[in-house]
Structures are given as C-alpha cells and as structure tokens.
C-alpha cells in the first residue's frame, strides 16, 4: 500500500507513463456546463468500481447515451472493476510490473477515450473522514492522467446504500458516502469538470431499486440511473408524445395523418430517438416512452395496430387520457440493442480481464500464451456487435391504425 501511494504521488513517473499517449426525476443542476454534445466517432469510457461493472449485464447507461445520438458512430468501453479504488488496488495481479496503477493507465490508454465517466469513492468512503484527503489526491491524479490524454472527465458522485448491516451502520455509511460525494463535487468545481450528482436522486427514490444486499442497484435501479444521467447531461426527456384529434383529423408530435375514413384513423410515426426498453421490472414511464393520445373519439372501444399487428385496445376515455405503449417495434429495437450492448461488453470483459490472466498475459505466458491470439480475435466479434448496435439504433417509420372495436 505504501509503495502504491508513493507511486501515485510521483508526478515524474506519472508523466513517463503518459508520455506519447494520448419515474419522476429531480432537477439536476448543470452548473456552468452546457448540455453534453457528443461528436462523430467519439469514444466513451466508464471507469470506476462496482457501479459500472455491475452495469455490464444491464446495458442501460450505454443505451441511454448511444441511442440519444443515433446519427453518430460512438464507441463505448467499460473498465468498471468491483472493489476498485482510486489507487487501482483491485487491479493487482501476480505479474509485476505492471503495478496495479500502471495497469490502470494502460487500460485507460488502450481505449483511446474522448470522454471518461469516473465513478469512485464507494470503497474509499469506508475510511470515513480520515481517508478523504488521500482519496482526493488519488482522484486528482486520475483526472491529471485523463487530461494528459486530451479526454474530458465527467465525475459521478457516490450513491447511498439502503441497508448496511443495521440501521446505525447504514446511517454511518451514508454519512460517509455523502461526505465523499461532496468532495467529488468540490474537485469537479475546482478542476472545472462536469459533475453528476447521483447521491441525491437515488436517496430520494422510494422505489425498490436495490438488490437484496441493500448496497448495489438492481435492474430497476440502473433503469432509473440511466434517466438521471440523461437529465444531468442536460438532455430533454426522450418521451415521444403523439396527439391525434379524431374530430379534426390532425396530428401533433412525431406523427402524420395518412387517412381518416369510416371511423378508422391511419397515421405514421417516426420518433427522433428510441424509447427505453421495456423490462421485466415494470411498465415504462411516459418520460422515456412513446405515448398516444386521441381526442374527439365517440364512446366505445378502439384498437390500435402497428404495421398490421394489434398493440392495444382501450376505451375512448382511456385514449383521451393517453396510453403509454409498452410493446411494439421501437421497444423491440431498444431491447435488441441492449442485448447487443451486453454481449459486446461481455466479450470485451473477457478480452481485457481473461481468466488465467497470469498464464495467458503474465509471467507464466510461456505456458498458455498461445491464447493471446484468441483474445485479439474477439475484436472481430466485438466490431460486428457494434455494427449491429449502429444499424438498429435509428427509429423507423411505423404505420398505425386506430379503429373501433367490432361487436
């Protein structure tokens, strides 16, 4: 540990390492930062501890960002490592060098990022106020390294826990987690970096968003976290609200009337961005979905079809109130993309953190080093999956028809 800390504070060594490289949401304050805008071919890196590694099997955070820019070719890599801290101690291996911290920088450099979302502090907060100074030093050195690569750092706060053993310990843990969240905010302000407050909205959320251990987010929690991230980046809600006036045969939102004959209204819809995928954890919120509102219908029940497939049947009163579509082509696209994201991230995980690492890449590579080529060959499958993500993230035009239910 002492050697690691001395190494962290040796700016000359750091310079050598880097040389030649390059649900209702509460309002999130943007501070002095405008809304985040991503550019063609930019690369986004998730760096941190369990918050990001546990997200590998969800894909919601990456989906939230990539689907927001369907016309941009963006690349994502996830270097989340459960139990990791700003000293990279969880990344240690039997092969030294590289040291854990050297390995962290090698991993960061290998992804050639343009934006790095940094989420540390959860592990370090267990030392309380006593460990705050060292945490800040380690965090600032990571920021220095990212700056040296010419990339932008986005600092994410810690998140609270729901239960940490008993109520007394839970209160202590959350007090420390809030202390570290505030410290991260201070560092962000000092270094003029974008800061995302996750602690406040997670603490205020009363839904069941934690796993049984009370510490890590569950599927619903990451679904909510993705929405928090979108709001913090200054992006408007992704809701696509279609409003049809049956009596006037007019449409608003991303819809156009095709025909209105014999009580049947046909219209087309092309959302600017895809809705969030529908999950087993519950129906989607209107803020992240497609909703259809139809006014001026005569009393009775009406069926909505999408490209000839029946979606939903509801009363005229329900249509007037608006109905959130929880299945359909766009929802299937979103679910499919999340599947590609999860598989792609799984392969990248196997590539940069292979089992038997010591035998394949480390000091015993003379035994199984032949498998290094197999790890490199995963690039072909990863590239194919990324191609599928890019191919399917653009919403398509759909034809809808609303017709009275036949008795």
Short note summarizing the structure:
This protein is an alpha/beta fold. The protein has 14 helices and 14 strands. It folds into two domains: 2-236, 3-Layer(aba) Sandwich (Rossmann fold); 237-407, no CATH class.
What is the fold's blueprint, element by element?
Blueprint: H1 2-8, H2 11-18, E1 43-48, H3 50-53, H4 60-66, E2 75-78, H5 100-110, E3 115-119, H6 132-148, E4 152-156, H7 167-191, E5 194-196, H8 199-204, H9 219-232, E6 240-245, E7 250-252, E8 255-261, E9 264-269, E10 290-295, E11 301-306, E12 309-315, H10 316-321, E13 323-324, H11 329-352, H12 357-360, H13 365-368, H14 372-392, E14 398-404
Parallel strand pairs: 1-2, 1-3, 3-4, 4-5, 6-10
Antiparallel strand pairs: 6-7, 8-9, 9-14, 10-13, 11-12, 11-14
Helix pairs in contact: 4-9, 6-7, 11-14
Domain SGNH hydrolase-type esterase: 57-222
Organism: Parapedobacter defluvii
Protein name: SGNH hydrolase-type esterase domain-containing protein
Structure characterization notes:
With 407 residues, the protein is α/β, with parallel strands linked by helices. The protein folds into 2 domains: 2-236, SGNH hydrolase (Rossmann fold, 3-Layer(aba) Sandwich); 237-407, no CATH class. The chain has helices at 2-8, 11-18, 50-53, 60-66, 100-110, 132-148, 167-191, 199-204, 219-232, 316-321, 329-352, 357-360, 365-368, 372-392; strands at residues 43-48, 75-78, 115-119, 152-156, 194-196, 240-245, 250-252, 255-261, 264-269, 290-295, 301-306, 309-315, 323-324, 398-404. The strands form 3 sheets. Strands 2-1-3-4-5 form a 5-stranded parallel sheet. A 5-stranded antiparallel sheet has the order 8-9-14-11-12. Strands 7-6-10-13 form a 4-stranded mixed sheet. A hairpin with a 2-residue loop joins β11 and β12. α4 packs parallel to α9. The longest helix is centred in the middle third of the chain and has 25 residues, at 167-191. The termini are far apart.
């Amino acid at each position: 540990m002492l050697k690691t800390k001395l190494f962290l504070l040796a700016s000359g060594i750091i310079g050598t390492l880097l040389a030649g490289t390059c649900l209702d949401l509460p309002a999130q304050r943007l501070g002095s930062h405008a809304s985040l805008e991503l550019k063609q071919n930019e690369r986004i890196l998730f760096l941190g501890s369990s918050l990001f590694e546990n997200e590998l099997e969800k894909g919601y955070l990456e989906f939230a960002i990539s689907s927001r820019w369907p016309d941009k070719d963006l690349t994502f890599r996830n270097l989340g490592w459960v139990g990791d801290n700003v000293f990279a101690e969880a990344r240690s291996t039997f092969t030294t060098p590289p040291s854990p911290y050297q390995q962290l920088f090698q991993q960061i450099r290998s992804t050639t990022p343009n934006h790095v979302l940094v989420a540390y502090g959860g592990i370090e907060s267990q030392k309380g106020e006593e460990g705050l100074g060292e945490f800040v030093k380690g965090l600032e050195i990571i920021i220095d390294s990212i700056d040296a690569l010419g990339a932008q750092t986005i600092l994410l706060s810690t998140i609270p826990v729901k239960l940490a053993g008993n109520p007394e310990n839970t209160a202590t843990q959350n007090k420390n987690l809030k202390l570290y969240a505030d410290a991260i905010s201070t560092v962000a302000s000092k270094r003029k970096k974008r800061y995302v407050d996750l602690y406040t909205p997670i603490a205020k959320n009363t839904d069941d968003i934690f796993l049984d251990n009370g510490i890590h987010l569950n599927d619903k929690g990451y679904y909510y976290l993705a929405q928090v991230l979108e709001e913090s980046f200054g992006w408007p809600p992704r809701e696509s609200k279609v409003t049809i006036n049956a009596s006037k045969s007019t449409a608003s939102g991303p819809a156009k009337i095709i025909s209105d004959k014999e009580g049947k209204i046909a219209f087309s819809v092309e959302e600017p961005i895809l809705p969030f995928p529908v999950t087993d954890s519950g129906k989607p919120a209107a803020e992240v979905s497609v909703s259809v509102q139809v006014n001026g219908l005569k009393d009775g029940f009406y069926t909505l079809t999408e490209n000839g497939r029946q979606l939903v049947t509801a009363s005229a009163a329900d249509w007037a109130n608006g109905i959130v579509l929880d299945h359909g082509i766009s929802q299937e696209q979103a679910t499919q993309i999340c599947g590609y994201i999860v598989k792609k991230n799984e392969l990248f995980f196997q590539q940069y953190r292979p089992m038997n690492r010591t035998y394949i890449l480390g000091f015993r590579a003379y035994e199984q080093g032949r498998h290094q080529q197999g790890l490199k060959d995963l690039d072909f499958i990863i590239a194919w999956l990324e191609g599928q993500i890019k191919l399917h993230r653009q919403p398509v035009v759909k034809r809808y028809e609303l017709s009275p239910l036949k008795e």
